[in-house]
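Q: what sequence does this backbone want?
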């Protein structure tokens, strides 16, 4: 295999000094991941053990109408549960039994911890073991924490997938495992590109259904599609699988580098790789050029939010002509983020964690053309004259791989176009 991604710039950011901050943070909680996970896993149900606030968050974030039948719900902890006046485990067992009787389509049940359930020390791990024994073999019960006390919101998916790794069947076959929840249409594109190169068998985590043949073993190699899956990667490595390190598949360059790393692992020749990727690469470059016309020469400042910040900064600087002033991420894992840091041109302040007041001061001083941040900061910064981009939209929107590359650039260019139109209207 002789295909090589674009060489890294002189002095990338892998060894750049990292500003580590530990203070007040502005992020969603890990329960948010249920919004895309419940759509992905078609026979799963996510039962949050939490408060009415948790229920309201999920209902409003998902936009589920009252007559819909989503694959998530909340076992609401009442005052008696919180005060220890009731046996919370008995209450939970009863609610799970009622749920499974009413929804026979459920094959996987996730008990999702929240801030309230963790505060009262409700042991959902034990509950999951007990309920698995009760409802096996029809239903598999797992648990993970979606609490926002110490996490950022994309860690909800990481915790969910990590909880699945120990129960995956063992295999000695050499297989490619692709890890990370993607919209079905994007997942189909990804698998189609790899299968066209002759790569297989291909397995997915999460699979759409529990009966899909996802297994792991010492001959499994895996590639991550999302940069926030550090715990899942560690769990897979612990079961003997090997990680294929690569830039993440955002934009034409990132997608090509990601595919190239997998193709090299499976011995795909350069001619086959080119035959499969040349046409979609050309479409992606054209789409990016059109969508990023207003981004060239502009500056960008990233607040830590989704853990997508480093690969997105690489995409914006190398493919859209922007200059990154600060790139902050909740966590930086060099085993995962290193390949993107290698490609990110030297210059920006790299920051891990957050002290929001200090970072706000830096953002105001920098006055970047575009500030990427969470919803809680966007409106105040807009009122101060800064142009912002909601970070959470980058998680909910299909942005991976070639066919979505133009849409990804468009997500960043639209706020700048909007700001330009508002200035024109004000001048008139």
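A:
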């Amino acid at each position: 295999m002789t295909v090589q991604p674009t060489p890294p710039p002189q002095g990338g950011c892998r060894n750049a000094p990292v500003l580590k901050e530990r203070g007040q943070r502005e992020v969603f909680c890990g329960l948010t991941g249920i919004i895309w996970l419940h759509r992905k896993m078609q026979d799963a149900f996510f039962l949050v053990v939490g408060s009415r606030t948790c229920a309201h968050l999920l209902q409003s974030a998902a936009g589920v109408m009252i007559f819909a039948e989503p694959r998530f719900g909340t076992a609401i902890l009442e005052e008696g549960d919180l005060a220890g006046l009731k046996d919370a485990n008995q209450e939970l067992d009863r609610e799970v039994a009622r749920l499974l009787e009413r929804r026979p389509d459920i094959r996987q049940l996730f008990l999702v911890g929240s801030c309230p359930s963790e505060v009262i020390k409700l042991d959902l791990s034990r509950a999951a073991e007990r309920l698995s024994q009760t409802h096996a073999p029809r239903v598999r019960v797992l648990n993970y924490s979606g609490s926002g006390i110490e996490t950022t919101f994309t860690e909800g998916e990481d915790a969910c997938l990590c909880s699945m790794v120990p129960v995956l069947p063992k295999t000695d076959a050499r297989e490619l495992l692709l890890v990370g929840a993607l919209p079905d249409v994007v997942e189909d594109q990804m698998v189609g590109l790899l299968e066209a190169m002759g790569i297989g068998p291909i397995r997915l985590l999460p699979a759409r259904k529990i009966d899909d043949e996802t297994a792991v073993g010492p001959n499994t190699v895996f590639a991550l599609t999302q940069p926030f899956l550090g715990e899942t990667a560690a769990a897979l490595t612990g079961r003997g699988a090997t990680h294929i390190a690569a830039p993440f598949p955002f934009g034409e360059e990132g997608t090509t580098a990601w595919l190239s790393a997998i193709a090299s692992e499976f011995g795909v020749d350069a001619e086959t790789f080119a035959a499969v990727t040349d046409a979609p690469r050309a479409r992606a470059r054209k789409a990016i050029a059109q969508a990023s016309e207003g981004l060239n020469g502009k500056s960008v400042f990233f607040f830590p939010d989704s853990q997508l910040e480093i690969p997105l900064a690489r995409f914006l600087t190398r493919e859209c002509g922007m200059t990154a002033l600060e790139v902050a991420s909740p966590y930086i894992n060099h085993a995962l983020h290193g390949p993107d840091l290698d490609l990110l041109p030297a210059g920006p302040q790299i920051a891990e964690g957050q002290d929001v007041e200090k970072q706000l001061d830096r953002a105001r001083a920098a006055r970047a053309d575009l500030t990427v941040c969470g919803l809680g900061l966007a409106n105040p910064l807009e009122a101060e004259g800064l142009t912002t981009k909601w970070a959470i939209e980058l998680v909910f929107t299909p942005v991976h791989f070639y066919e979505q590359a133009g849409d990804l650039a468009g997500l960043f260019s639209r706020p700048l176009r909007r700001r330009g139109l508002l200035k024109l209207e004000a001048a008139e």
